[in-house]
Amino acid sequence: MKAFVTGAGILAGLLLVLAAGCTIDSVRLNQRAQVYMEYGEYEKAEELLKKSLDNDHENPATRYWLGRCYQATGRIDRAIYEYGLAVRFAPSIETAQMAYIDTLHEDQREEESLRATKAFLAHKDMLMGEYVRIANNFRDKGMDMHYITTLHYAQEKNLKDPTPSLTLADYFAEKGDVEQTMKALSRAFEIDPYYPGLAEKLGRNMYQEETPEPTSIPEPSPLEKELRELN
To answer: Cβ(48)–Cβ(32) under 8 Å?
Structure first.
């Protein structure tokens, strides 16, 4: 079985345990478990992680890594449960939040995944660049509703910044959705009518929305053709 954890993953794990405020014993056990996971030794990793929980039952880092261990071995429901506990104990830790959101989505529990996304955004104060980064991360994974949800949330949190609306406008334009493109551009225009190039883009899309599609003339039937020839 291919290992589920990489060297970069272990580094992220170290940052996670430090952020979570783990005890020294838990940190050591978690580190050893991550090494075992890197080499595909999930049973040994699970044993160490459960020992770590004996030291601190509410350790979010341990819960996260146990979730990773369960996910790697196909026990998705148990992985989601552990990720959920990690998020409950440390809602500000992005690594655990994203694992929880992604795994719910992969398990086709879309409504729960979107609720988890909104809860994550509500627990984390971010600059606009971070919102866009997270949104783009969702889009790269094909999670378009999460992408849209994140940008809508960013717009509500930053009422004077047109960036989320402009980003959504580009997204909907790419999808060919003229109505949603216009809504996003109009929202951006309300926020900052002097934004470079915005008025031109709004006008161009308005023209596209108002220009009717050319109607095709139906082909006459054989009977109609013959009658026309008689005339």
So the answer is: yes
Cβ partners under 8 Å of residue 171, min gap 6: 139, 147, 148
DSSP, collapsed to helix, strand or coil, labels residue 129 as helix
Work out the mean pLDDT of the chain and round it to a whole number: 87
Residue 203's alpha-carbon distances to 175, 182, 189, 192, 209, in angstroms, are 19, 10, 11, 15, 10
What single string gives the DSSP state of each residue in 64-125? Answer: HHHHHHHHHTT-HHHHHHHHHHHHHH-TT-HHHHHHHHHHHHHTT-HHHHHHHHHHHHHH--
Amino acid type, 182: M
Structural domains of the chain, ranges and CATH numbers in brackets: 23-111 (1.25.40.10), 125-205 (1.25.40.10)
Helix or strand holding residue 61 (H, E): helix 60-72
d(CA 179, CA 194): 22
What pLDDT score was predicted for residue 220? 74
Question: CB-side exposure of 59: number of CA atoms within 13 Å?
Answer: 27
Q: Are 64 and 83 in contact (CB under 8 A)?
A: yes
Pick the closest to residue 84 from 56, 53, 119, 131 (CA basis).
119
Task: Tell me the mean pLDDT in the region 158-184.
Answer: 95
Rounded to the nearest 5 percent, the helix, strand and coil shares of the chain are 75, 0, 25
Nearest alpha carbon to residue 57 among 35, 37, 85, 27: 85
**Average pLDDT for 55-73:** 95
- Measure the CA–CA gap between 168 and 162, rounded to whole angstroms: 10
